[in-house]
Protein backbone atom coordinates (compact mmCIF):
# COMPACT_ATOMS: atom_id res chain seq x y z
CA UNK A 1 0.00 0.00 0.00
CA UNK A 2 1.60 3.25 -1.12
CA UNK A 3 -0.84 5.69 0.43
CA UNK A 4 -2.08 5.58 4.00
CA UNK A 5 -4.83 8.13 3.43
CA UNK A 6 -6.29 9.33 0.12
CA UNK A 7 -8.87 11.86 -0.92
CA UNK A 8 -10.77 10.73 -4.00
CA UNK A 9 -12.52 13.42 -6.03
CA UNK A 10 -15.27 12.22 -8.36
CA UNK A 11 -17.12 14.59 -10.66
CA UNK A 12 -20.88 14.61 -10.64
CA UNK A 13 -20.85 14.28 -14.42
CA UNK A 14 -19.01 10.97 -14.17
CA UNK A 15 -21.95 9.57 -12.20
CA UNK A 16 -24.23 10.12 -15.21
CA UNK A 17 -22.63 7.28 -17.15
CA UNK A 18 -24.27 7.29 -20.59
CA UNK A 19 -27.23 9.31 -19.35
CA UNK A 20 -27.78 13.02 -19.95
CA UNK A 21 -28.71 13.80 -16.36
CA UNK A 22 -28.77 12.32 -12.88
CA UNK A 23 -27.23 9.15 -11.56
CA UNK A 24 -26.48 5.96 -13.48
CA UNK A 25 -27.05 3.03 -11.11
CA UNK A 26 -24.44 0.82 -12.76
CA UNK A 27 -21.74 3.49 -12.64
CA UNK A 28 -22.59 4.23 -9.02
CA UNK A 29 -22.18 0.58 -8.02
CA UNK A 30 -18.96 0.33 -10.01
CA UNK A 31 -17.49 3.26 -8.06
CA UNK A 32 -18.71 1.78 -4.78
CA UNK A 33 -16.98 -1.53 -5.55
CA UNK A 34 -13.73 0.23 -6.47
CA UNK A 35 -13.82 2.20 -3.22
CA UNK A 36 -14.61 -0.96 -1.24
CA UNK A 37 -11.56 -2.72 -2.70
CA UNK A 38 -9.35 0.27 -1.92
CA UNK A 39 -10.61 0.56 1.66
CA UNK A 40 -10.19 -3.20 2.22
CA UNK A 41 -6.41 -2.84 1.76
CA UNK A 42 -6.28 -0.63 4.85
CA UNK A 43 -5.97 2.67 2.99
CA UNK A 44 -8.12 5.34 4.62
CA UNK A 45 -10.50 6.73 2.03
CA UNK A 46 -12.19 10.14 1.97
CA UNK A 47 -14.39 11.08 -0.99
CA UNK A 48 -15.66 14.37 -2.42
CA UNK A 49 -18.29 14.20 -5.17
CA UNK A 50 -19.33 17.02 -7.46
CA UNK A 51 -22.86 17.92 -8.44
CA UNK A 52 -22.54 18.76 -12.13
CA UNK A 53 -24.88 15.90 -13.12
CA UNK A 54 -27.70 17.73 -11.33
CA UNK A 55 -26.95 21.45 -10.99
CA UNK A 56 -24.06 23.89 -11.19
CA UNK A 57 -24.13 27.41 -9.80
CA UNK A 58 -23.06 28.92 -13.12
CA UNK A 59 -26.31 27.63 -14.65
CA UNK A 60 -28.31 29.84 -12.27
CA UNK A 61 -28.26 32.92 -14.49
CA UNK A 62 -29.70 30.99 -17.41
CA UNK A 63 -32.63 30.14 -15.15
CA UNK A 64 -32.92 33.80 -14.12
CA UNK A 65 -31.73 32.90 -10.62
CA UNK A 66 -29.30 34.51 -8.28
CA UNK A 67 -25.76 33.06 -8.51
CA UNK A 68 -25.41 32.47 -4.78
CA UNK A 69 -28.75 30.68 -4.70
CA UNK A 70 -27.52 28.60 -7.63
CA UNK A 71 -24.34 27.70 -5.80
CA UNK A 72 -26.33 26.48 -2.80
CA UNK A 73 -28.45 24.43 -5.20
CA UNK A 74 -25.19 22.98 -6.57
CA UNK A 75 -24.05 22.16 -3.05
CA UNK A 76 -27.32 20.36 -2.35
CA UNK A 77 -26.81 18.45 -5.60
CA UNK A 78 -23.49 17.18 -4.23
CA UNK A 79 -25.31 16.03 -1.08
CA UNK A 80 -27.74 14.02 -3.25
CA UNK A 81 -24.80 12.35 -5.03
CA UNK A 82 -23.03 11.77 -1.72
CA UNK A 83 -26.15 10.13 -0.28
CA UNK A 84 -26.38 7.88 -3.32
CA UNK A 85 -22.74 6.83 -2.97
CA UNK A 86 -23.16 6.30 0.77
CA UNK A 87 -26.11 4.04 0.15
CA UNK A 88 -24.31 2.13 -2.59
CA UNK A 89 -21.33 1.55 -0.29
CA UNK A 90 -23.46 0.43 2.62
CA UNK A 91 -25.30 -1.99 0.35
CA UNK A 92 -21.99 -3.80 -0.10
CA UNK A 93 -21.17 -3.62 3.61
CA UNK A 94 -18.75 -0.72 3.66
CA UNK A 95 -18.94 1.40 6.78
CA UNK A 96 -19.37 5.07 5.85
CA UNK A 97 -20.08 8.52 7.23
CA UNK A 98 -21.42 11.47 5.29
CA UNK A 99 -20.28 14.86 6.57
CA UNK A 100 -21.75 17.97 5.05
CA UNK A 101 -20.40 21.50 4.72
CA UNK A 102 -24.01 22.72 4.95
CA UNK A 103 -25.90 21.51 8.01
CA UNK A 104 -28.68 19.07 7.12
CA UNK A 105 -29.02 17.31 10.43
CA UNK A 106 -31.63 14.70 9.51
CA UNK A 107 -29.45 13.37 6.74
CA UNK A 108 -25.80 13.75 7.64
CA UNK A 109 -23.33 14.92 10.24
CA UNK A 110 -22.04 18.47 10.06
CA UNK A 111 -18.42 18.71 8.96
CA UNK A 112 -16.17 18.71 12.02
CA UNK A 113 -12.52 18.11 11.23
CA UNK A 114 -11.66 16.08 14.31
CA UNK A 115 -14.72 13.90 13.85
CA UNK A 116 -13.83 13.27 10.21
CA UNK A 117 -10.30 12.25 11.23
CA UNK A 118 -11.67 9.87 13.85
CA UNK A 119 -13.98 8.22 11.29
CA UNK A 120 -11.03 7.73 8.95
CA UNK A 121 -8.89 6.24 11.73
CA UNK A 122 -11.71 3.79 12.43
CA UNK A 123 -11.60 2.68 8.80
CA UNK A 124 -14.88 4.29 7.73
CA UNK A 125 -15.15 5.74 4.25
CA UNK A 126 -15.81 9.44 4.81
CA UNK A 127 -17.83 11.30 2.18
CA UNK A 128 -17.73 15.08 2.26
CA UNK A 129 -20.95 16.58 0.91
CA UNK A 130 -21.88 20.20 0.06
CA UNK A 131 -18.35 21.15 -0.97
CA UNK A 132 -16.83 23.55 1.53
CA UNK A 133 -20.26 25.00 2.26
CA UNK A 134 -19.65 28.41 0.68
CA UNK A 135 -20.77 29.81 -2.67
CA UNK A 136 -18.28 30.72 -5.42
CA UNK A 137 -16.26 27.57 -4.77
CA UNK A 138 -16.18 24.22 -6.52
CA UNK A 139 -15.95 20.67 -5.29
CA UNK A 140 -12.36 20.59 -6.60
CA UNK A 141 -11.56 23.29 -4.03
CA UNK A 142 -13.42 21.25 -1.41
CA UNK A 143 -11.34 18.21 -2.38
CA UNK A 144 -8.07 20.13 -2.00
CA UNK A 145 -9.09 21.78 1.26
CA UNK A 146 -10.44 18.64 2.92
CA UNK A 147 -7.39 16.66 1.78
CA UNK A 148 -5.12 19.22 3.44
CA UNK A 149 -7.25 19.27 6.59
CA UNK A 150 -7.25 15.46 6.72
CA UNK A 151 -3.51 15.37 6.08
CA UNK A 152 -4.14 13.04 3.13
CA UNK A 153 -1.13 11.79 1.15
CA UNK A 154 -2.62 12.61 -2.22
CA UNK A 155 -5.70 13.94 -4.05
CA UNK A 156 -6.85 11.42 -6.64
CA UNK A 157 -8.90 13.19 -9.26
CA UNK A 158 -10.94 10.54 -11.05
CA UNK A 159 -12.02 11.71 -14.50
CA UNK A 160 -12.95 10.08 -17.81
CA UNK A 161 -9.56 11.04 -19.28
CA UNK A 162 -6.51 9.03 -18.23
CA UNK A 163 -4.36 11.97 -17.16
CA UNK A 164 -3.13 15.45 -18.10
CA UNK A 165 -2.44 15.96 -21.79
CA UNK A 166 -0.56 18.58 -23.79
CA UNK A 167 -3.99 19.59 -25.17
CA UNK A 168 -7.57 18.36 -24.75
CA UNK A 169 -7.36 14.75 -26.04
CA UNK A 170 -11.09 14.74 -26.81
CA UNK A 171 -10.54 17.64 -29.26
CA UNK A 172 -6.92 17.32 -30.40
CA UNK A 173 -5.79 13.85 -31.67
CA UNK A 174 -2.12 14.88 -31.45
CA UNK A 175 -2.36 15.48 -27.70
CA UNK A 176 0.02 13.40 -25.57
CA UNK A 177 -0.14 12.50 -21.92
CA UNK A 178 2.30 13.53 -19.20
CA UNK A 179 3.15 10.70 -16.81
CA UNK A 180 4.39 13.30 -14.32
CA UNK A 181 4.46 17.07 -14.28
CA UNK A 182 5.25 19.81 -11.77
CA UNK A 183 2.81 22.36 -10.40
CA UNK A 184 4.88 25.12 -12.03
CA UNK A 185 4.76 23.46 -15.46
CA UNK A 186 1.00 23.05 -15.27
CA UNK A 187 0.74 26.79 -14.64
CA UNK A 188 3.33 27.78 -17.27
CA UNK A 189 1.66 25.63 -19.93
CA UNK A 190 -1.80 26.73 -18.83
CA UNK A 191 -3.03 23.12 -18.61
CA UNK A 192 -6.37 22.49 -17.01
CA UNK A 193 -6.17 20.17 -14.00
CA UNK A 194 -8.45 21.81 -11.45
CA UNK A 195 -9.71 25.35 -11.06
CA UNK A 196 -7.02 27.78 -9.91
CA UNK A 197 -8.22 28.02 -6.29
CA UNK A 198 -8.14 24.23 -5.89
CA UNK A 199 -4.83 23.88 -7.71
CA UNK A 200 -3.12 26.66 -5.73
CA UNK A 201 -4.23 25.10 -2.44
CA UNK A 202 -2.50 21.85 -3.41
CA UNK A 203 0.61 23.66 -4.68
CA UNK A 204 1.02 25.82 -1.60
CA UNK A 205 0.59 22.84 0.71
CA UNK A 206 2.77 20.50 -1.33
CA UNK A 207 -0.08 18.05 -1.76
CA UNK A 208 0.38 15.80 -4.81
CA UNK A 209 -2.49 15.36 -7.28
CA UNK A 210 -3.02 12.34 -9.52
CA UNK A 211 -5.42 12.72 -12.44
CA UNK A 212 -6.58 9.31 -13.63
CA UNK A 213 -9.37 7.46 -15.44
CA UNK A 214 -11.77 6.29 -12.73
CA UNK A 215 -13.91 4.46 -15.26
CA UNK A 216 -11.23 1.89 -16.01
CA UNK A 217 -11.86 -0.96 -13.57
CA UNK A 218 -9.02 -1.54 -11.11
CA UNK A 219 -7.29 1.82 -11.68
CA UNK A 220 -7.94 3.07 -8.17
CA UNK A 221 -6.45 -0.08 -6.69
CA UNK A 222 -3.44 0.10 -9.01
CA UNK A 223 -2.73 3.61 -7.78
CA UNK A 224 -2.96 2.56 -4.17
CA UNK A 225 -0.59 -0.32 -4.89
CA UNK A 226 1.93 2.24 -6.16
CA UNK A 227 1.57 1.63 -9.90
CA UNK A 228 2.00 4.61 -12.20
CA UNK A 229 -1.44 5.40 -13.49
CA UNK A 230 -2.59 8.71 -14.98
CA UNK A 231 -0.57 11.88 -14.35
CA UNK A 232 1.14 12.74 -11.08
CA UNK A 233 1.49 16.44 -10.25
CA UNK A 234 4.16 17.27 -7.68
CA UNK A 235 6.64 20.00 -6.78
CA UNK A 236 9.49 18.12 -8.46
CA UNK A 237 8.39 15.59 -11.06
CA UNK A 238 11.10 13.08 -11.94
CA UNK A 239 10.20 13.02 -15.63
CA UNK A 240 7.79 15.52 -17.04
CA UNK A 241 8.19 14.41 -20.65
CA UNK A 242 4.93 13.64 -22.43
CA UNK A 243 4.46 10.11 -23.75
CA UNK A 244 4.87 9.40 -27.41
CA UNK A 245 1.87 7.61 -28.78
CA UNK A 246 -1.34 9.56 -28.26
CA UNK A 247 -3.55 6.55 -29.00
CA UNK A 248 -1.85 4.07 -26.69
CA UNK A 249 -0.30 6.53 -24.29
CA UNK A 250 -0.99 4.48 -21.20
CA UNK A 251 1.07 1.63 -22.67
CA UNK A 252 4.12 3.73 -23.48
CA UNK A 253 7.10 4.03 -21.15
CA UNK A 254 7.98 7.52 -19.96
CA UNK A 255 10.96 9.21 -21.58
CA UNK A 256 13.62 10.48 -19.22
CA UNK A 257 15.60 13.08 -21.11
CA UNK A 258 14.59 15.86 -23.49
CA UNK A 259 16.99 14.32 -26.09
CA UNK A 260 14.94 11.13 -26.12
CA UNK A 261 11.83 13.10 -26.95
CA UNK A 262 13.27 14.60 -30.14
N1 LIG B 1 -20.47 24.56 -5.00
C1 LIG B 1 -20.26 25.67 -4.21
N2 LIG B 1 -19.34 25.61 -3.20
C2 LIG B 1 -18.59 24.50 -2.96
C3 LIG B 1 -18.80 23.37 -3.80
C4 LIG B 1 -19.74 23.42 -4.80
O1 LIG B 1 -20.90 26.71 -4.41
O2 LIG B 1 -17.77 24.49 -2.04
C5 LIG B 1 -21.54 24.57 -6.03
C6 LIG B 1 -21.13 25.26 -7.32
O3 LIG B 1 -22.24 25.96 -7.80
C7 LIG B 1 -20.81 24.09 -8.22
C8 LIG B 1 -21.81 23.04 -7.79
O4 LIG B 1 -21.89 23.24 -6.37
O5 LIG B 1 -20.98 24.43 -9.58
C9 LIG B 1 -21.50 21.61 -8.11
O6 LIG B 1 -20.14 21.32 -7.87
P1 LIG B 1 -19.05 21.14 -9.05
O7 LIG B 1 -19.36 22.06 -10.18
O8 LIG B 1 -17.70 21.28 -8.42
O9 LIG B 1 -19.30 19.65 -9.50
P2 LIG B 1 -18.54 18.75 -10.61
O10 LIG B 1 -18.10 19.65 -11.71
O11 LIG B 1 -17.36 18.11 -9.93
O12 LIG B 1 -19.57 17.75 -11.00
TrEMBL record:
It is found in: Cytoplasm. UMP binds at residues 51, 71, 132-139. Its main location: cytoplasm. Residues 4-213 form the Aspartate/glutamate/uridylate kinase domain. Pfam families: AA_kinase. ATP binds at residues 9-12, 52, 56, 159, 165, 168. It catalyses: UMP + ATP = UDP + ADP. Residues 243-262 are annotated as: Disordered. Pathway: Pyrimidine metabolism; CTP biosynthesis via de novo pathway; UDP from UMP (UMPK route): step 1/1. One of its GO terms (biological process) is 'de novo' CTP biosynthetic process. Its EC number is 2.7.4.22. GO terms for cellular component: cytoplasm. InterPro entries: AceGlu_kinase-like_sf, Asp/Glu/Uridylate_kinase, Uridylate_kinase, Uridylate_kinase_bac. It is an enzyme of class 2 (transferase). Keywords: ATP-binding, Cytoplasm, Kinase, Nucleotide-binding, Pyrimidine biosynthesis, Transferase. Inhibited by UTP. GO terms for molecular function: ATP binding; UMP kinase activity. The keyword Zinc-finger does not apply. Belongs to the UMP kinase family. Catalyzes the reversible phosphorylation of UMP to UDP. Homohexamer. This is Uridylate kinase. It comes from Hymenobacter daecheongensis DSM 21074.
